[in-house]
Amino acid sequence: MAPDLVADSISASGLTSEKLNLPSLQSKMKSDPEGYSSELTLIYKQFKSSLELFQQQVALNFTSLSGIAADSTVAKDLGDRAMFLAHVTPFYPKELAQYPNELVRFLESSARNLPSGLRVHVAQALILLINRKIIDIRETLVVFMELQTLGDRALKKLAFSHVIHSIRRMNQKHKNDPMNRALQNVLFGMLQQEEEAKAKRALITLCDLHRRKVWFDDRTANAICMACFHSSSRIMIAALSFLLDFEKIEDDDDDSDDSGSEDEPATEQPQIVLNKEAIYKANHKGTTSSKKKKKAKLQRVIRSMKKQQRISSEKTNSNYYSPLNHLKDAQGFAEKLFSRLQASNERFEVKMMILKVIARTVGLHHLILLNFYPYLQKYIQPHQRDVTNLLAAAVQACHDMVPPDAVEPLFKQIVNQFVHDRSRPEAISVGLNVVREICLRMPLLMTEDLLQDLVLYRKSHEKAVSSAARSLLTLFREVCPSLLIKKDRGRPADPKARPKAFGEVHVASDIPGVELLEQDDHGDSDEGLDGEHYGSSTDDDCQEDDGIGLTEEDSNVGSDDDSECESGDSSDSAHEMDDDSGGSAEDDEVSDEDDNNCNADDASDEEKSEEDADEENDKSGLPETDAVSATNPKSKAKKRKFADFEGQLNAASKSLRALKKLAGASGNTSSNTDDGILSNEDFQRIKELKAKKEARAALTQHGFKVPSSDQLSTKRVDAAKLEANIKKKLTKEERLALIRAGREERGKYQSRTAMKQKKTGGLSNRQKEHKKAMPLAAKRAKIAKTRQEKKKQQRSSKQFRGRKAWK
């Protein structure tokens, strides 16, 4: 019986055949690991013997054509056995405990001398062991980084994707900081090496992990920035291009790379709050065309507010910023990079990249690098290559912390070289746009005479020049209207506005937005703040937000006041929601008249109520104090609140804000915010009131809104926008392509009659008239009429021979 059992087991394992059937043996060993231990030892010994042969060949530097490396069958058998052992290693942890380390040592010692197919098989076996957590990635990261430098394209792609996905998977649920720090030390050390291939692969790995939001910390960002000072120019160019195109890479890869969305945290939807009156007028007041305009303006306001809230949320989220934001020593980085630029002998494109990174860093961190502006001044010429990129860098490097005297020579150079009567329209428009962008950041550079000369270009017949001059005029209407002559000032929002002096800073002495909370507590907020959530939230949320801490009677009183004011300005509702281009002065006049009407109506109502109260007092014989208390609305509100005291107590038990209101109403505290302590509900209410105020300002605003210095520093200046409205002359081929594209959309030419004959959908009115059944009298009249017309035609066709004398 024993020999039969041995024979059965050998035949089942496939040993009777000339070659082992590894896939079938692998499945059998996974189902019964203990029964196939002898086969495992046999295959493991074969693998070890093949490894020794390869290592001896590497030691002897054996390069003859008859060597083992040239034998494809030996390499294939070794690769198959390596994959086989990797698959069964989890089922034999004791027998194959040293197998992963042997694979690592084998790749470290002889990876360069192995055939390409064998290298890929061994790397796949090692990746399989790492994925099953049999060996740690810290022990294999150096090997996989070196495999990327061998020149094998398939192996490079395999090793790179394995490193990226392993680190991503490791940080998927939570950040593994000790492991991350150990792996970062390995990559940082490779990045600082003189060997270009290893440093480049380390930089590419760090940039990809940073872009995927896996390693988004200060250490990684500073390592990428420090790669700009590498001795190899290729490494420097790669680091500069990543720093410059970080935003563009992020925008382009969001759609193409599905994994990017997994790494990013979920951002909440923006909350849009609009005026109830504006929404009502857009849907119910005016003609169809005016409603259409009002709805379009509402949609524009919603889009702009969503964009602003998205930008503000991205600012609070550190994942938005490029690596330049995480620089530990931004001033030292900019100075060191500028000194390398001055001593550099690189080609012009590389110098431009260094110059852009310096300008971006100066503008982002509000640095002072005074030697940078005279260096830029040398290249400010209309015929200079890539002059718009240079001008964009000059604009980016300007901010309110730079002394105006340092930038004034550069500013005058731009005006003198670009904006004059003999210059081309393209150069004038670019110059005016650059002047506008610089003055937006440093308005103190502009003088009254220069501004008046530049504003005269708005009368130019070139659209690009006139639009650029008008944009400069619009800017100074908001920033400093006193520099303009009286007819050019228009109707600015603040006629006494002036730019801040150099070094002037407004320091906040209180929590931003706390005054809105105080106004809301005292009931002084105007009707524009009673808004509703539009586009993102439901009406129930709106009612909850607007009704915090107020009773039903209070909200009814406020709605009555609002309805009275709405009736006062309903006649001019069509003018409120027009486009911004319709003239801001007229809209302001209309709004002033509406306010006056509302105030007049309120005054008349108060007088009537006082007269009615006096009459009632005389009739009833009440004393004067009782009459005053009866007509006082505040006392009525207090009586109503005390009537519903139990409801307020229940609300106070659930909400700290309601408890504060109840304490303030009963006289225990003077104000909700006197103690200086704000709850989470207070901060949430401040956020809502700010959103409502921004919505009202966006609806009533006409013209240009000046951004803050922080918004300007984070925004990257696009060189293409400096060339706005410039029509470039098309070549003959481009014009022909446009003509052919238009012909493709249009069908084949046909006459009007042919198109009518092909018409579907019924008969025309003329055809219906021909087929209509007419009454008998009408038919006879038509026949008689046609006979008379025929006789007239026959008479007119005969030749006139003159009148006879006897007739």
From TrEMBL:
**Basic residues bias spans:** 768-807
Taxonomy, superkingdom? Eukaryota
Q: Which InterPro entries match?
A: ARM-type_fold, Sda1, SDA1_N
Sorted alphabetically, which Pfam families does this protein's record hold? SDA1_HEAT
Establish whether keyword Nucleus is in the entry. Answer: yes
List keywords of the entry alphabetically. Answer: Nucleus, Protein transport, Ribosome biogenesis, Transport
Q: Where is the SDA1 N-terminal domain?
A: 84-460
Q: Where in the cell is it found?
A: Nucleus, Nucleolus
Mainly localized where? Answer: nucleus
Renumbered to this chain, the Basic and acidic residues biased-composition regions fall at 488-503
Instruction: Give me the stretches of Acidic residues compositional bias.
Output: 517-529, 538-569, 577-617
Disordered as annotated region, ranges? 488-641, 743-807
Q: Name one GO biological process term.
A: ribosomal large subunit biogenesis
Q: What is this protein called?
A: Protein SDA1
